[in-house]
Amino acid sequence: MKNSDMKEKMADFLLANANPSIRYRVKTEVLHEELSTEEKDRLQAEILEEPIIQSIIACQKENGWLGNGFHGPNKNAGPFENQEVGTKYLGEKLVYKDTPVLKRAMEAFVTTELTDLCYRTKGKYFDEFRYAANGQNVIRCACIARAGYDDVIDIKPQIQLALDSFRRVLEVDSALDITRVRKSGGKEKRVFNDYEKWPCYYHFDILAHTNSWKTEENIKMLAESFKKLMRTDRPEKQVGGDSWVGYVLGTIGCLKEGYQLGYEENGVHYTYFDRVEWLCRCGLFPYLEKLQKEVELLLSFVNDEGICKAPIAENQLKGFSTYGGQQLEVDWKTETRKFCDITFRALLIMHYSTVY
Description:
The chain is mainly alpha-helical. 46% of the residues lie in helices and 7% in strands. The radius of gyration is 20 Å and the shape is globular.
């Protein structure tokens, strides 16, 4: 099947069967259709009535903050009733930017000091420019990017920090060169030197969901950085680091050499959908052979009806959380809903592999 035919069949399947969020994104993000005000309002109304969205609206505080958590759930904050997951989910569901629940949550990011207790860092500010691959402000800026608010709230310094962090991978031989060993709890831990830079999950998230940084030079640099991170011939260099803030503090998803786009288990290949989608969103498809092969393999699972039946690791795609989950269907009680989420992500990957 030709790629154009495959893309059309995948879109047709989703438009006939998927959740209103997916249908809206297929029409606007993939097919670039201009929707009438009536259709947009109808789809938005359907989305806002979903139980998860209603729970997010219900947990919003007077200042706009969502729930009683920041970086994911805790004993007082459910899986969606916290500021990070809540705002990212609203952004992925394409709740409009001027919808009160999202607008007020974004305003809370502007008006709330980074030392506020709602960030759950006991009033401490972990400076993202001092501590490599760390800091609550990097998480905050990733939420702003995912919600499409980077044109409203200034996150340019953190976009530049993300670029500089990936560039640092090319400036040193490995993370071993910019980390040191500290003893913690009777164990030796490798921690980054102060004011060093190194990429993390959230730097990647920021770049994948913004466009202002995209120049040919930056895209090629990022591709070279990932090419090095994907090396598997130096197992001794597959190390990252933690942060030393007077004690060892874990990073926010520090990237390491040996970075993979999929994995084998019991003879079955599973694709990391989020990694592949984000790399394609960054415009790296033309420059990374491993990415090209992973996309080709993923699309080989699309059948004649346009349904992607690729094997998935449910803990990686199902649900929605800080470091995983991309589910937009309300549940997976039917195979059709599950295949809608899988097919939608595969369609986005196909779309962004060629759009830049």
